[in-house]
Hints:
This protein is mostly helical. The protein has helices spanning about 15-25, 30, 40-45, 60-75, 85-100, 105-115, 120-125, 135-145, 150-155, 160-165, 190-195, 200-205, 225-255, and strands at about 165-170, 180.
Amino acid sequence: MSEYKLNPPTVSSYTENMMLKVLFEHKGFSEVFRESSWRSDEIASAFGLPEELENDKNLRTVARRLLKERYKKLQKSTALLPELWKQAYENLATLAEFLQLNPVEQELLRFAMHLRSEGAMRDLFGYLPKSDLQRTGEIMADLLKQPKNQILSALKKGSKLDAYGLIDRDYRPDSVHDYLDWGETLDFDEFVTQPLNENVLLKSCTEVAQVPSLQLDDFAHIAGMKEMMLTYFAKGTKTSSERCESFNLWCARHW
C-alpha cells in the first residue's frame, strides 16, 4: 500500500473539526467515501486528501486512516485563531454584547458564519440523510456541545436570532444547513472583514426615513370629495341625534 500524507486543509481548524466529527460520529464517512471514489472533490480538498488517492483501489481504507489520525490530533490540540478570522470573531463578540446573545445563540451564529464562508461544510451536510428540526437540534447539540432544548429554542421561528434576521432558514428545510443560513440583516462580507460598532449595527437594522415631498396643494383635487363627505357626516349626525331625541320622548311617555 502506497504511503499517503494529508496536504494542508483548505478550511479553518474550526470547520475541519466539525466536518471530521460529522464524518465519524454522524455516519458522514459512508455517505461521502465509496469503495473506489469520493463523491465531492471540494470535501476531499478541504481535508487535504491527495488527488492521486482517488485512483487507489484502497481509497476508502486509506482515507479513513488518514482522517481518523487527523481527527484525534485536532481533538488534542488548541488551534490558534488565524488572522483571516480575527475580525470576524471580534465582530461576533461585539454583536453578542450589543444584543445580549446567550452562549447557545453565539455558538449557532459562529457556526452559521463558517457554514456561509466555507462551502465544503455545507457540501458535507448535503450528503447526510434528510433532517427535520428535531434531528437538526440533536446534531447541533452534539457538534456544539450545548443542550438540545436550548438549540431548538434558538432555532425556532420568532427566536432572537430569527427576529433580528441574523440567521434564516430555507422555505422547505430538510437538511441541517437549511436551518442555519446567514440572515439578511448583516452583510456577510462586511461582517467578516470590517469592524462592527453600534453605528454600523444601527444602520444595518434600520431604514432612514425619507424627507416628505408632498405639499398641501397636492391634495387640492380632492377638495370636492372632502366637502361631500363633510356634508354626509353632518346629515348622518343630525339624523342620529333626532332619532335619539324621539326615542327619549317615547320612553318618557310610556315609562
